[in-house]
What we know:
- It is a single chain.
- By secondary structure, the chain is an alpha/beta fold.
- The protein has two domains: 7-62, 2,3-Dihydroxybiphenyl 1,2-Dioxygenase, domain 1, CATH 3.10.180.10; 65-118, Roll (2,3-Dihydroxybiphenyl 1,2-Dioxygenase, domain 1), CATH 3.10.180.
- The protein has two helices and eight strands.
- The radius of gyration is 15 Å and the shape is globular.
- Residues 8-118 form the VOC domain.
- It holds the Pfam family Glyoxalase.
Amino acid sequence: MGLLFENNICCTFIHFDNLEKASNWYEKTLGFSVRKKDLPKGFVELHMEGVNLTLLTWRSTEKVRPKHPVFTFYSLDIEASHRKLKDKGVKVYDFSNAGSVSGFLFEDLEGNILMVCS
């Protein structure tokens, strides 16, 4: 049986109550730059390699916030990434190891759970 769609992921979304604050946090705290921004339309697309990361305004009163990361950032120096996030006052969790892969979780300004691995 053939694929029903292309064999790649085009983008991932994270929803926010305050998109402008979220955009500023991802720029200042995580160091991303903005590719496209349209606050009235409710989206901010960040410059990323590979899959696009898009920040969106909630459009529903039923907000579902996963209690686990829905994607993972990659770091060449995971210890430095962990330390720098802590130094910036970000809520960062302890490392976990799975063989040759290690990672940690952290929260953005609205409590979305994000992950970094190496």
